Design the sequence.
């Protein structure tokens, strides 16, 4: 299962849920290919409509003060493939003193 | 006065301030959206229980929230303002990468279009909703006008936190007649509900650009700060610019007259807001700031004052009774002056960069503090009675 961890800034969109898990096969049921970070974003938006636009802008760029980690690696693109047991953490980046 | 409800947007959320019938007791309620930047918080004059709020979060990007019950419950727009996704931009394609950073301005539509709203954003874009603010679309005639990227200039042409599209005006006599200001670009006018646009900047100084060698004026590229149309006369326009205070009588001319030349020279005619008297086309108020040297954008010499004209800009009267008389270095942003009228008279309100809400109930003659400890104020609007 792909584990997803969400920042406090998104609590109002998820009714307080901060941790979720997704079946990787269900994320890409149509294409059958390996899931990507974008698939996770789309799955989050399906469950919590409007959430995707809070973390990714209309050009599908990760918002300036949002950071995505896969494992302990920060990723800057949404097409990064995910393993079947990937750990994806979305954080509100440090943007103040 | 009757009860007055003031909507205050700040750098850290929104507050509602309600005044008693005699204007002497005020109640501050809030915050709403604590921690978020509320650039504009506007009541719908066509449906007073409906309000829209332009909310920006440092982390979560731009959005618009609306209430249908006077602020008890809030719903986020299902489709906030956004530019189209560009899939395969060319290297020279100026369309590449536009994404809304924040929604800066909200304007209710014409009385005959009760669900219509307009929004101005940074980067500069014009958007429209036809369902009361739930879903938003581009006004393509403006955002994708063939001259748009010439009009708006480069990245250096704008305020430090991004150039703003502001002062969206819907002519109360004609829903197809629109005006707007771009802080990097100038004033533009549409007579066909946004399908086509023309610049409206003749006569406006642009001293941050070199003079044209042929002596002609720049057609666009100006920096209007705030534009108003008088509610009794759709031809009477005023605007506070980066380079002065102007007036235009649209039925007589398409040229702006710099009425700020009649301001005291030691105060100057630079500022952000301008508001007009709801019953007198010749009365307007401004709040000057220091636009000299390093452009500190503070009250000139630390002595805040409103200036009022009663004769369409031919002369100006200083109004500072009640304000600190020295060492007060705040100023007032462009959405932060508001005027309201009811059967008891005029209420004039302003919000400051250090979080103070002030009111005047004698047309600016004297001022009283209403709420003195809010965050930096971004907008002040009054709910129509």
Sequence:
């Amino acid at each position: 299962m792909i584990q997803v961890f969400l920042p406090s800034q998104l609590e109002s969109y998820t009714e307080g849920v901060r941790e979720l898990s997704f079946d990787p096969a269900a994320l890409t049921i149509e294409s059958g290919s390996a899931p990507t970070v974008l698939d996770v974003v789309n799955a989050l938006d399906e469950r919590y409509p409007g959430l995707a636009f809070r973390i990714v802008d209309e050009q599908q760029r990760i918002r300036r003060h949002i950071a995505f980690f896969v494992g302990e690696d920060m990723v800057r693109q949404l097409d990064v493939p995910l393993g079947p047991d990937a750990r994806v953490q979305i954080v509100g980046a440090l943007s103040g003193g | 006065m009757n009860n007055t409800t003031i909507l205050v947007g700040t750098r850290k959320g929104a507050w509602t301030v309600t005044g008693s019938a005699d204007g002497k007791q005020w109640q501050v309620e809030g915050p709403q959206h604590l921690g978020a930047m509320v650039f504009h918080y506007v009541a719908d004059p066509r449906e007073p229980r409906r309000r829209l709020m332009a909310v920006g979060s440092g982390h979560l990007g731009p959005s618009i929230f609306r209430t249908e019950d006077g602020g008890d419950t809030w719903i986020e727009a299902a489709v906030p303002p956004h530019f189209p996704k560009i899939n395969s931009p060319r290297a020279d394609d100026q369309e590449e990468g536009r994404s809304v950073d924040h929604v800066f301005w909200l304007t209710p539509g014409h009385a005959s279009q009760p669900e219509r709203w307009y929004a101005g954003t940074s980067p500069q874009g014009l958007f429209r909703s036809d369902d009361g603010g739930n879903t938003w679309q581009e006004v393509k005639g403006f955002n994708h006008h063939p001259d748009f990227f010439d009009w708006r200039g480069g990245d250096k042409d704008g305020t430090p936190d991004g150039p703003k599209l502001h002062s969206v005006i819907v002519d109360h006599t004609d829903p197809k007649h629109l005006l707007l200001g771009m802080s990097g670009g100038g004033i533009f006018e549409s007579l066909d509900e946004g399908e086509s646009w023309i610049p409206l900047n003749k006569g406006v100084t642009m001293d941050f650009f070199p003079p044209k060698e042929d002596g002609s004026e720049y057609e666009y590229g100006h920096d209007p700060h705030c534009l108003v149309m008088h509610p009794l006369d759709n031809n009477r326009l005023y605007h506070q610019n980066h380079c002065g205070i102007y007036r235009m009588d649209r039925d007589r001319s398409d040229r702006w007259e710099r009425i700020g030349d009649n301001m005291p020279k030691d105060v100057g005619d630079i500022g952000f807001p301008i508001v007009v008297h709801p019953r007198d086309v010749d009365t307007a108020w401004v709040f000057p700031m220091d636009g000299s040297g390093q452009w500190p954008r503070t009250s000139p010499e630390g002595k805040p004052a409103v200036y009022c004209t009663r004769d369409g800009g031919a002369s100006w009267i200083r109004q500072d009774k009640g304000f600190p008389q020295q060492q007060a270095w705040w100023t007032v942003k462009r959405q932060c002056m508001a005027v309201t009228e009811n059967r008891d008279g005029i209420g004039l309100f302003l919000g400051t960069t250090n979080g103070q809400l002030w009111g005047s109930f004698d047309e600016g003659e004297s001022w009283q503090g209403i709420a003195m400890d809010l965050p930096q104020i971004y907008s002040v609007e009054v709910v129509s009675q």
About this structure: The beta strands of chain A are 2-5, 19-22, 66-70, 73-75, 87-92. The mean pLDDT of chain A is 92.
